[in-house]
Design goal:
By secondary structure, the protein is α/β, with parallel strands linked by helices. Helix content is 51%, strand content 8%.
Length: 285
């Protein structure tokens, strides 16, 4: 489950509702979709929610029953009762084309991330854990490889030893072993859908090796939650043929900022890099 604390928001109330329930992968997908569209959910029919989550309508009914309600109407009635008085049904977005809708969905994801970051303590805690690890392995496979690469690229400018793990296969365990032998105490993972089985295997292996696993994932209900010590959620956009990951990328930069706060030498390293870059004419002014 997510390690992030949040203020009293529609998304926070939904996550509190899901806490303590053992959900199937399909039910976790429904829960994730509901959190991502928390303001709209009290006004969606079971068919609309099923379409949003990409599941069948009976799956939505079973999900409501798993939460202790007689059915989806009872769940929706509960959500409307606890919704803020000023909350209104969503505005009609029919005038937006599919590309605009995808952008609007990402804006909503970023707004939700801003709400989550109202409590900065989980990110600050993760930053301390990552800053203390020497070396710091950063894992991201398939869709998450670019997120891991971006974090590792910038982190290497302030952290003395960052090791990028972005290729799958049997070598991952070897590289985790090497990091542990070198003194690593934590591993950062970026995990995005669809979640490769080898990511779960690698995180399980890292935990067995004694590493603290910090994961940036698309949802608090992602499969990697069970093999993560600290999970920081940021939703992905699903309105296009391929998912978009603006919120996870931004959360990665926020986490990098928190890590810098716990690296006393970070500013000096940045100034040294800038001086060398200028001397080499590395960038076009």
């Amino acid at each position: 489950m997510s390690d992030m604390g949040v203020k009293d928001t529609p998304a926070a109330r939904l996550q509190a509702l899901f806490e303590g329930h053992r959900l199937t992968p399909t039910q976790r997908r429904i829960a994730h979709s509901m959190v991502r569209r928390a303001a709209d959910v009290p006004f969606l029919s079971s068919v609309e929610l099923a379409e949003l989550a990409g599941v069948s309508q009976p799956s939505v009914t079973r999900f409501a029953v798993a939460l202790g309600f007689d059915g989806y109407p009872a769940l929706r009635r509960h959500l409307r009762e606890v919704a803020p008085a000023e909350q209104q049904p969503p505005a009609d977005a029919a005038s937006y084309n599919e590309y605009q809708q995808a952008v609007e969905a990402e804006i909503a994801n970023l707004r939700h991330l801003a709400e989550v970051l109202a409590d900065p303590r989980p990110v600050q805690r993760a930053g301390r854990v990552l800053a203390a690890s020497r070396p710091l392995p950063v894992l991201g496979l398939r869709a998450a490889a670019s997120q891991a690469y971006g974090f590792a690229y910038f982190a290497a400018k302030v952290h003395p030893d960052v090791r990028l793990l972005h290729e799958g296969g049997t070598m991952i365990h070897d590289r985790i072993d090497a990091a542990v032998r070198a003194g690593a105490s934590a591993l950062l993972c970026f995990a995005l859908p669809r979640h490769p089985r080898e990511v779960l295997d690698a995180l399980g292996y890292a935990k067995e090796a004694g590493l603290t696993v910090v994961t940036v994932a698309d949802s608090a209900f992602a499969p990697v939650a069970k093999v993560s010590d600290l999970l920081l959620p940021a939703a992905v956009g699903t309105g296009l043929a391929f998912d978009t990951a603006c919120a996870p990328m931004l959360l990665g930069r926020v986490l990098l900022e928190a890590m810098c706060d716990d690296l006393p030498e970070a500013q000096a390293r940045l100034e040294e890099f800038d001086a060398k870059a200028a001397a080499r004419g590395l960038f076009v002014e």
